[in-house]
């Protein structure tokens, strides 16, 4: 698990490899990641948008941004948490994701919270010695 805390809001990410959706012979590795956002602050906040930077093992960088996460813009009161799962295909067996969420306070103030950088790694394939 990877973790980052900004303004008392903690983001935890747990990545996993999806072997059944991957096809290494076709150059496709698929990963899932579970994100938990815990509001440890005294403020009610709303997640307004996301920004991801995805880097594959060849150094190719792709950015993804847009409103909310998984079609939602959750509101988290003090002590609340929100969890979701999403996925990422890569053309290489490993990569790194990092980013931030843009949050909004009730008074309209916008701020960013860090998403920790996390590694996407397909487990090593079993090797047979002859």
Shape: elongated
> What is the residue-mean pLDDT, rounded to a whole number?
94
Q: Are there runs of 5+ residues with pLDDT below 50, and where?
A: 126-130
Helical content (DSSP H or I, runs of 4+): under 10%
Top CATH class? Mainly Beta
**The biggest beta sheet, please?**
5 strands, antiparallel
Number of strands: 9
Count structural domains. Answer: 1
The CATH architecture term is: Sandwich
- Note the gap between the termini: 37 Å
By secondary-structure content and strand pairing, the structural class works out as mainly beta
DSSP helical segment count: 0
* Beta-strand percent range: over 45%
- Rounded Rg: 17 Å
- Full CATH superfamily name: ApaG domain
Q: Briefly note the CATH topology name.
A: Immunoglobulin-like
Order of helices and strands: EEEEEEEEE
Structure description:
The chain is mostly beta strands. The protein has one domain: Immunoglobulin-like, CATH 2.60.40. Helices cover 0% and strands 62% of the residues. The protein contains no helices and nine strands. The N and C termini lie far apart (37 Å). Mean pLDDT is 94; it is low at 126-130.
């Amino acid at each position: 698990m990877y973790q980052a805390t900004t303004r008392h809001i903690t983001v935890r990410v747990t990545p996993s490899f999806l072997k059944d959706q991957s096809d290494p012979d076709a150059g496709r590795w698929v990963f899932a990641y579970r994100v938990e956002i815990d509001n440890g602050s005294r403020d009610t906040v709303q997640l307004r948008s996301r920004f991801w930077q995805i880097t594959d093992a060849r150094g190719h960088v792709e950015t993804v941004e847009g409103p909310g996460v998984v079609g939602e813009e959750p509101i988290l009161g003090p002590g609340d948490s929100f969890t979701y799962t999403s996925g990422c295909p890569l053309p290489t067996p490993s990569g790194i994701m990092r980013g931030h969420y843009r949050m909004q306070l009730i008074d309209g103030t916008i701020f960013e919270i860090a998403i920790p950088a996390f590694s996407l790694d397909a487990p090593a394939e079993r090797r047979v010695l002859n």
